[in-house]
Amino acid sequence: MADLLSSNGGDVLEETLGRLSKKPGVKATIALDRTSGAILKTAGQISSIRTSKTQSSSLSTTQSTGTFASDLAGPQASETQGAEELAAMVWAFVSAAGGLVQDLDTEDELKLLRLRTKKQELVIVPDTKYLLIVIHDTPPA
Question: How far is it, in rounded angstroms, from Cα 10 to Cα 7?
C-alpha cells in the first residue's frame, strides 16, 4: 500500500483515505507530509479522538492569551486545531520511533507503528512522502 502512495501521487492518496475511512470502526484518517508533518488530507471525526479534558485545557490556554471562544470559528476551528495537535503528536512519535530504529540498526527502517489504547488504535504507515494514519475503535478482546 505504501508503494502505491509514492508512485501515483495525490489521486491514489485520496482514494486510499476514502476507502479506509469507510471501513467499519474507523474514526478518522489523516495523511501527513513525511518531512514537515503538515496535514495533507483528513477524513472522519478527529474531534472524537481527543477527550474533553484535553480539549478544555486547549481552551483555557486560548483564553489566557486574550482570545475568547466567541472569536474562534466554532466547531470547525476546534476540529482544525485538534487535527493539527494530533498530527504534531503523531509526527513526533514517528520521528522518535524512527530514531530508535536507526540507533538499533542503521541499515533498518521503520515500516509500521501500531499504538493501541483502551479506547482506540492508531495504525501509522510511514512512506517516503507521506505518513498515513488510521484511527479506529479498539476491537473487543
Answer: 10
